[in-house]
């Protein structure tokens, strides 16, 4: 008998869980059956919001809710691989992975293989791709009558994450579970640079830890060379003080300039081919997460019910992790690195200290 809706389960009830629950509730033919978190208070709150059952053990959740089709993993990034592997191999459920999908390329490649063997699909989350401003610039770059080919792409993320932010959870600021400013906060903007400007051929990066006592970097700059021959500049930090100042991406193209900024790349600040588009393609978001999760959830529903293409393919999302590793490896060897095949010696490696993260 064919299905007429897709049933979601959710593991990890941090801040982003509310946005996923909201997106599911706003999507036709989508339903959420249960949520899980080791924190009893937090899971109860999200269960009430979702009108769903609550669990502190996801194995029990999946045993009692066989109707679940797909699990949303919102746990710390370093837990994604083991949990996704277990859920696909032993429970045969599809997976939606929040950013960053995995900590290493080996993990991503292994999950892709397991997905094929288990007849499951894995869906990444890069929701800012679907902002109106981003989509408008994407179209203008593809349309030679507007912006045309990119010559220089630039990302600037100047944010503040003080020591107390990292002290809130033992997994934050660690190589195994979290990564630094590029991995946690910057991955969306690294992905957008790829999405708008094209794949990157090689990078030269310098990373530092300047504003907090953590294992990983809180400041990074890089020069990029795209496959097209265009150049790029990357500046991502959480060491700005005392506040968040800027998060932007700009594309200087053969026929004009586009600049996107705002709390969630939601404002088209400059669009030189037609300035009227700046207001028309800017949005107001209730949260920094934006509205793109709705597009991703709807894409999953359509894919699983109708066998259509998802909003973002797994291998496309994994390419942003590949670029991330090249940036780290460049800093490690203090030189230029080809993106393809790059593997950081630090990102995803065991911590210097025990993080004491409960695996639910």
Describe the structure.
34% of the residues lie in helices and 22% in strands. It has 360 residues and is an alpha/beta fold. It folds into 2 domains: 6-127 and 292-313, 3-Layer(aba) Sandwich (Rossmann fold); 128-283 and 318-338, Dihydrodipicolinate Reductase, domain 2, CATH 3.30.360.10. Strands 13-12-11-7-10-9-8-14 form an 8-stranded mixed beta sheet. The chain has a 6-stranded parallel beta sheet with strand order 3-2-1-4-5-6, with helices on both faces. Strand 2, helix 2 (40-50) and strand 3 form a beta-alpha-beta unit. Helix 1 (15-25) crosses helix 10 (292-306), helix 4 packs parallel to helix 5 (105-118) and helix 6 (132-142) packs parallel to helix 8. The mean pLDDT is 96.
CATH top-level class of the largest domain: Alpha Beta
How many domains, as an integer? 2
Order of helices and strands: EHEHEHEHEHEHEHHEEEEEEHHHE
Q: Architecture of the largest domain in CATH? A: 2-Layer Sandwich
Strand content: 15-25%
Gyration radius from CA atoms, angstroms: 20 Å
Key phrases:
Rossmann fold; alpha/beta; Dihydrodipicolinate Reductase, domain 2; single chain; 360 residues; 2 domains; 8-stranded mixed β-sheet
Topology:
Blueprint: E1 6-11, H1 15-25, E2 30-36, H2 40-50, E3 53-55, H3 58-64, E4 70-73, H4 80-91, E5 94-97, H5 105-118, E6 122-124, H6 132-142, E7 150-158, H7 163-167, H8 187-197, E8 200-208, E9 219-226, E10 231-237, E11 246-253, E12 256-261, E13 267-271, H9 276-280, H10 292-306, H11 314-333, E14 337-338
Parallel strand pairs: 1-2, 1-4, 2-3, 4-5, 5-6, 7-10
Antiparallel strand pairs: 7-11, 8-9, 8-14, 9-10, 11-12, 12-13
Helix pairs in contact: 1-10, 4-5, 6-8, 8-11
């Amino acid at each position: 008998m064919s299905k007429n809706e897709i049933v979601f389960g959710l593991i990890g009830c941090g801040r982003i869980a509310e946005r996923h629950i909201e997106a599911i509730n706003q999507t036709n033919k989508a339903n959420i059956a249960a949520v899980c978190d080791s924190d009893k208070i937090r899971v109860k709150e999200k269960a009430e919001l979702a009108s769903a059952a609550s669990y502190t053990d996801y194995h029990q959740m999946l045993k009692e809710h066989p109707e679940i089709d797909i699990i949303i993993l919102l746990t710390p990034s370093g837990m994604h691989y083991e949990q996704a592997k277990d859920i696909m191999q032993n429970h045969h459920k599809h997976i939606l992975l929040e950013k960053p999908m995995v900590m290493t390329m080996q993990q991503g490649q292994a999950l892709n293989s397991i997905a094929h063997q288990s007849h499951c699909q894995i869906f990444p989350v890069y929701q800012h791709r679907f902002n109106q401003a981003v989509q408008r610039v994407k179209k203008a770059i593809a349309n030679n009558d507007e912006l045309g080919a990119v010559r220089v792409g630039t990302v600037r993320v100047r944010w503040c994450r003080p020591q107390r932010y990292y002290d809130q959870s033992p997994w934050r600021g660690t190589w195994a579970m979290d990564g630094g400013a590029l991995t946690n906060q910057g991955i969306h903007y690294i992905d957008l640079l790829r999405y708008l400007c094209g794949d990157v051929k090689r990078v030269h990066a310098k990373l530092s830890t300047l504003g907090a006592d953590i294992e990983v970097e809180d400041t990074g700059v890089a020069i990029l060379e795209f496959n097209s021959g265009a150049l790029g500049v990357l500046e991502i930090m959480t060491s700005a003080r005392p506040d968040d100042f800027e998060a932007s991406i700009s594309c200087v193209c053969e026929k004009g300039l586009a600049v996107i900024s705002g709390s969630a790349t939601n404002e088209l600040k400059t669009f030189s081919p037609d300035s009227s588009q700046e207001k028309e393609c800017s949005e107001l978001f209730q949260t920094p997460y934006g509205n793109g999760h709705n597009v991703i959830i709807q894409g999953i529903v359509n894919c699983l019910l109708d066998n259509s293409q998802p909003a973002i393919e797994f291998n496309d999302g994994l390419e942003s992790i590949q670029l991330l590793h090249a940036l780290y490896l460049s800093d490690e060897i203090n030189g230029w690195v080809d993106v393809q095949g790059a593997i950081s010696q630090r990102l995803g490696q065991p911590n210097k200290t025990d993080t004491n993260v409960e695996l639910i």
